[in-house]
Each structure stands twice: as structure tokens, then as C-alpha cells.
């Protein structure tokens, strides 16, 4: 047979193994198969779920057979798209179409197992034995290494010698249990997938707009007039969500532009493509800012009313030759005190509404970006001047009120040493153009994993708390001191400054965590929270592990050997552990890092003394719960079958270990038992918490009768909260995550709603529930001028009805503040204004600046040769010794994903493995000719950290660029293969990438590093 890829997926889209075989001609007839399948569907149970892969959150219908009789358990046999879903409308991409093969993969783990230290085999054990042994190892290590007080005598109650990695596709409810489990033990080495993907989004967008999330939503993309895809490839990574960009092209005549190191599948359907050197995006975007300001292509009324353009910057702020004011060369950190505004006698920021003052933000910005001329952009980026100007001109067309542009990006921006500052550049451009808060506008971060947005919301990072609050630091020894330091004061009079409610959010969290044990007398259990002295993010913690400072580790739904940079170092670090606990539905490279797989993992198991436990968990199709897509929609899904064999739900696994730990502390005592014993875990079945219980506590309860400021009863004691406005700082409310308040109310589970009525401009507020307060477009008050008149009457989201704001969306604004009230729309920021100047919000500068990647192909930064690279980027000594040079590794490598595969998951799915069975590397025709490489040859790609091999794909999609007077070659490396899975064995692409992260979020650099290429 000769089937095209399109034909293959059309036939295989049903996903059922039988239907697939029949469709491909391995059974009598397609027609007969279709008739049999339809009959089976009539007898099947239909269950609604959401795709487990990317963050589009496509709706799925799972069909299962089995009535619950003995030996007749429900089993999913068919999966298809949900036609009612407002985003996907029945569509599934190749990954989603093959999800049945993932659910029933022969790589699914079946039983609890242990690999004893130094052995070369798995041994099957019981769940009781696993829980007992793991609990004992955790307790003994905690008791021996717990730090009650630091060297200064400050109470810190932290545990550093064991840590945990949380998932990215498990439900919110599992995430809540992860947090409780880790913080009840005082763990600081606690992180999740957000550290490896979209951490810089939060670090950049929160200081720019107030929240660190996608500003709009998938369906809203259709309203854009100009779409810039840069730092992403949505046609490949988010195919179903990308249909809304195509809708904009077809129905709105949108101009779609792609700027990327490769001519990718998004570029193939774009109106315009331009190449760029990987790692130079900040220079490109600052060039756009310079163009807009130099050519007066900004929306003046919006900029004056809704940005901090007019605020006056402190006199001691400066930037010179690559350094901002306040730099400490010895500590390699900035004192950011000068990065703020001049204030008047009333304490508020001074402003010049004429924009003439030389130190007002807009003039400081003009001065900062003047160096980024089109010629300089070409020098740094390799982008032809005419291409760069085309992008500028198209974006500039949206500076008028009735046109909007949207930015779509993903890992291509976050996976950089300066990823957060790249995203800041996009935010600044959209503020200058007046595109934030507008339908078809905004800065839209396309999250990579199905629930990485939710896990970020839930605070599953080393120094975070739920709802984007921070864990206290060592020196914040009192609750009052902590709240004073973290609760901002308004920068301008009359502004909302919504973070002023931090005490209510925090105390309500404390009541949720510690329950009746949290009292006013003990500061709501404040001392039981572990305090931090430094970041224990994933890179930092694995460096500690590499140096023998960590004894135990838990990896839940996470494969760090395949996902983290410098895989060889990661494997060496794991070999120094005493014990490793894997909680996963699939076999992973992390679970078998001790096995010899030849050149793919050349180790001697006898030398590795790490005891490894492998615990089989459920997958998405086997759990109830909510996941949060890119557009902040909390979507509830239901299980279509029970976990197979002896696999258990994550909550049951955590519950079994935690309850055994509690028993040990109750009978034996130990280090700070209050942390363990006081953490609230009072579920109907604490060994197996129900997701519905956990979801309700994430929303929050009234712990006493609640009254409004007029004395009227709002809620009775024990009732679920309706919104975060009901939270109190007096201990009368409990809520795990304040931004989720309203997701499950007395009216029921709002996340399970399925009303797809379009209330206007593609908004479907009756479908699921979006944080905050079910708003679908953030900062939407900025879509109208201060008098309440829409900038574009055809895109009117809101209107003032005489008493309140109403319309197609929930106003992101005080409902009772009328037009011309003086209340600005960026209500989470203390100025109420979108920030062109980010003040103290970033660690590496209030304006973005181009710094060379840690491994740079250039001799020096053309802008300031003496400060070529970020002066505040953190790098550990072991990693610094593994940094390559341009002399030895002359080519730039960038990693990426392909349509048919999802990170390291779909290599376990037979359908996906058939379509993309083998590792390959893309390189230009010119480089291939230089190296004597032909298409299909096996090539070796090396960095300072190791090498991989793959088939050569010689293509025009990767181009030779002229950068700073030299020819520059880039190669593209897909990141999907490894030595476990259904695909052919391959090398881990992350063997090549360096162990350095974004200066703000410590997200690793995967998109611009140095390699050499040769024919193998």
C-alpha cells in the first residue's frame, strides 16, 4: 500500500486498534469495519475528557465497553473529538488522534517495582511494601537532615536533602495534593514542568501587565488583523488551536508573519516569513520598538492613558555600555533601588502628561532603543533589513484603534538565557500599539503541556505559593513583616492595586493548609511554612545532587533525564542518590538511567548504588479532575476507565505514602512533626482523596457566617465561596488558590459547564470556567477609552449600563467604577498602568537589552563588546566547565518539536512511532555540501557536553545567514527520541544543551547553543 501521511491519519483518526488495522487494509473491508464500529458505539459508554498533550485543551469523547460485571471492566476502545468544544469543534491533531495507543501503550507500567542498589533488574513488590519502604526512607532522611534554624538562628523549618518534581499533565487536584505533600515535609527542592517551559512568561508578563498568563484565548485569535508568530510554531505544536489563526486569515484577511530560525510548518501557510539567528530575538523586538517610536506609529491616546509612559524615572537610574545602574560586579547582581519612579510629597509617582520631561518613561525608552536601527538588527540577527522593515510596517498598521495585532509564542522565546526579557519586548510593543485588552490583540503564550498553566497557578515551584504568591524568605521571620514586604502600596492615587488584598489571600491559604491548627495566636501557622535562602529550582537542585548533597528524589509524571539540559550530568546526579521514586504511567529514561543501553546510555549498573522505586500511575483518561488550558480555562474531565493492572491514581499513591509517614511521626516523633501532622489532609478517604473534595477546597469555604460592609449575610458557615472578593484576612475563610475562587460554588461545579453559546466576539463564558472570575480576555477595560467609548465599535466587549460594566465578557475592572472614574485598567499593578518600564519587576533590567547567548557564535556583542553576555545570568562551576567555544563548536543548534510527536510521551504510542520512527537532524544545503553530507546520511552532532547521531535531513528550511560580517549556520534538532519507547532507540537531544537558565526564571537554554557537525 502507498498511503500519504494525511491519508494515514485520516484512516487512523478513530484511534481504535481494530479500526486502524481495517482501514489500512488488513481486514476484509472498510465498510464492514465501519458498520461494526458504529454498532459498538451504540452500546458504549461515552465519557467527556480533554486531550493530554498541548495546551489547546481539545475536547475528547472516550468510548468504553464493560458493564462492571466480574471480568468485564470498562475499557476505552475508541476516541474522537468533541464537536461541542468551542476551541477544537471536533478536531484532533495527529497526537490526539493517536491517543488511544498512548492509553493502551505496551509501555504502560503494570506493578510497583524496585531496582535494588547495584542490581540489574526490576523486582515486583506490593503497594504496601512500596509505601512502607518509601515512607521510611523519607522519614529517616528528613529527621537526619532537617534544618530548623539557619546559621543566623532564624527559624526556617526546611528540608534540602530530598526533593520532588511534579507533573505537567495531571489534574489540578493532583497538583494540590503534590503541594500539600511536599510542603508538609518542608521540602524546598520542589519544582514542576513550568520551570522547563513557561516560567519566563510569568516573570515577564506579570511585571508588564499584572498577571503572567495568556492575555486572550484561542478562539479570540480569529479577530486579529496582523499575527506575528515568533518564538513558536503553532501549526506544528498546537495544530487545532492554530485553526483560529487560519480563520483570521480567511475571514478577517489577517496578515500572518513568521520569524523563526527555520522555515517551519507555520511559515508554510504564512503570508510572510523571515529568518533570524536563534537567541537574538530581543534585538529584533527592540528594533521594532525603535521603529514605532521613530516613525510615530503608536496609539497616542492609549499610551498616555493606559501605560506608564508619562511617569518620571528616578534621577539615579542609568544604562551604560550594557550595564544598568546598581550593578555589583562581585556578587553579579543588581541593586534595583534606582529602577523606579520619582515620587512627590504624597508618596505617589510623579508624571509629565506632556511627555516632555527627559526622564519620563517614554523618553528613557526612546534613548534606550535608539541603538537598535534596522542595520543593527541585521548585524545581530542576520535578518535581512527589508524583511525586518516589513514586520515593522505590518505591526505599525495596528497603531490605529480599529486594527489589532496578536503575538503568538511558545518555547522559542522561553528557552533562552534572556527569555523573560524577550517576552517583555513583545509586551512593550503591544502596549505602544494599544493592542492589550483588545479582541484579536494581546501577548498570547501558547503553553506546551496540557496542565502546565494549572500547575503554575497552583504554586508548584520551589519558592512559590498558590495564586502567584511567594514563599517567605529566611529574613521574613514574622507574618506581619512578610505581609508588609509583599503587599504593594499604590503608586498613583485612586488605583485598584488589587495585590493590596495579599493578606486575605495568604491567610485564607494558611487556613486551608493547616485548618483548625492555624490560629491568630500562632500567626495562622506561618512558622510551619519552609523559608528559603536561595532558589532551589531544578537546575540548582540537580547541581546539589551532582555534588552529592541530595539523598532522595521523587519524580512524578516527569522525565528529567530526557527533559533537563545536559542529560549526562542529570544521569550522573541521579547515580549519587540513595533512593529515587518514579510515579509515572510509562517507562521513562529517568526510571532506567541505571541500565546500560549501549552508546545511548553507556553505564555499569553495578556502579550505581541508587535504589529506584517505580510506581505505576493512571493517565488522563483514567481520572476525574480539571486541567487549565492556555486561555486559563479550567475544564473538568471524567475517567473513561479505571487504571490498568495495579496502577493507581496519583492521589492514591501520594495518600498511601503520606498517611504512612504520618503514622511514623505519630508513633516515633521526629524533626518538626507539626509540619507533617498539622497539614490538613482530612478527606473522606485520606488514603485516596476524591478529586471533587480537593477541587472544592481549591475554591474555598466560608469558615464562619460572612457579611458584607452593609451587614448583610453573604454566605453561611460551611458554604463554598462565590468569588475571591469574599476572602478575609481574619481566619473566617479558607481557599487553597485564590484565583480559583468561583470555580466550584454552591451552584455546582463551574468547570464542568458545557454551554457553548457565543455571547459575542467568540466568547463562550458558559463553557467551563476561566480564572480570574471567569474573564476570557484580561485587561478588557483597556478596549475602551477612559470615557468608556470602544476604541473599535466593531470589537466592543463591554459597555456601561448606568450602574455597572456589562457585555460579552466579565469586566476586568471594578464593576461599579463608571467611565472617567480615573481608575486605570491594569488593576493588578500598583500604578494601574501597563509598564513600558518594568520598574523593579525584573532582575536583569527595567528595559530589555540584547545579550549574547551563553554559547555565542560571535566574538563579542556588537552593542557593547565589554558586556557581551548577561551580567546576572547564574551559572554553576560544574556547568561553566562544560561551556563550549565558537572555535571548537562553530554552529548554532536549536531544538524543536514536530507535529506527530509530543516531547517524550508519544514515542510510547505505536501510531505516532510508526509515523516518526527514527531520529533526524535538519541542516542547510550549504553546510551539508561543505561537510560532504547527503540526505539520509547518519551524522554526528557534538557539543561540549556530549554527542548524538541521527539521519541528515538536508533542506532549504534552514538557511545560511550573514551575522556580524560572518556566515552563520544553524541546525535544527527535534527532541523526541530516547532509549525507551516504541520508536527505534535514539539519543537524547538534551545531551547537547547547556545547564544555564533564564536570568529571571532559571528556565534552561534549549534554543541557542553551539555544536559541531560531521558525517558519522
Automatic annotation (TrEMBL):
SUPFAM superfamilies: ADC-like, Formate dehydrogenase/DMSO reductase, domains 1-3. GO terms for molecular function: 4 iron, 4 sulfur cluster binding; electron transfer activity; formate dehydrogenase (cytochrome-c-553) activity; formate dehydrogenase (NAD+) activity; formate dehydrogenase (quinone) activity; molybdenum ion binding; molybdopterin cofactor binding. This is Formate dehydrogenase-N subunit alpha. Belongs to the prokaryotic molybdopterin-containing oxidoreductase family. It holds the Pfam family Molybdopterin. GO terms for cellular component: formate dehydrogenase complex; periplasmic space. PANTHER family: FORMATE DEHYDROGENASE-O MAJOR SUBUNIT, TUNGSTEN-CONTAINING FORMYLMETHANOFURAN DEHYDROGENASE 2 SUBUNIT B. It comes from Lampropedia puyangensis. It comes from the Bacteria. PROSITE patterns: 4FE4S_MOW_BIS_MGD, MOLYBDOPTERIN_PROK_1, TAT. Gene3D superfamilies: 2.40.40.20, 3.30.200.210, 3.40.50.740, Dimethylsulfoxide Reductase, domain 2 (3.40.228.10). Keywords: 4Fe-4S, Iron, Iron-sulfur, Metal-binding, Molybdenum, NAD, Oxidoreductase, Periplasm, Selenocysteine, Signal.
